[in-house]
Amino acid sequence: MIHFRKAVEADAPRITAIYANARRFMAASGNPNQWIDGYPSEADVRADISADVLWTACRGDEILAVFALIEGPDPTYAIIQGAWLNDRPYAVVHRLASSGKVGGIGEICLRWCLDRFDTLRVDTHADNRVMQRTLIRMGFVYTGIIFCHNGTPRLAYQLDRR
Question: What does the angle CA 148 – CA 36 – CA 67 come to, to the nearest 5 degrees?
Fold first, then answer.
């Protein structure tokens, strides 16, 4: 059975390893440019833990996936080439990664987030076909392009269950 809990400082090395594994998987599946230069780093992991936004999906004591769940507004979503579905309050899922041990864990994590927030926004790299397929299958709507803090474009999606 999968359960969710907030990440704690002791989880940082394991989460950093999951992100490294996710970078390798993304590169092997045609998405080598989404997370570059070691992002998300252990410092990013620790910052998310300190901000109390980092969650883990676990089976027993084993971390199967990790993600940041942040209540909006997200500054990088303020400008979009396109249009959000609406401007209702929302949460954002960032830095979702899997250990690779359980298929479909990304969707499980997103569904858990939707149990807590009626409106979610997510962005992903144009080359991240795996995430795009998951989002479309779940009913997320492509809304346009946003730009990360470093200026790189991302495909923006929103799901509103209201």
Answer: 65
Separation of alpha carbons 137 and 128, rounded Å: 14
**Which token pair is 60?**
């027993």
With beta carbons less than 8 A apart as the criterion, state whether 84 and 72 touch.
no
Residue 25 is given by DSSP the state H
> What's the order of all strands across the beta sheet hosting 81-82?
2-6, 54-59, 62-71, 91-98, 119-124, 153-160, 141-147, 81-82
Six token digits for residue 35: 């997370």
pTM value? 0.94
What pLDDT digit, counting tens, does each position of 3-32 carry?
999 999 999 999 999 999 999 999 999 988
Q: Please name the residue that has the structure tokens 């479909």.
A: 104
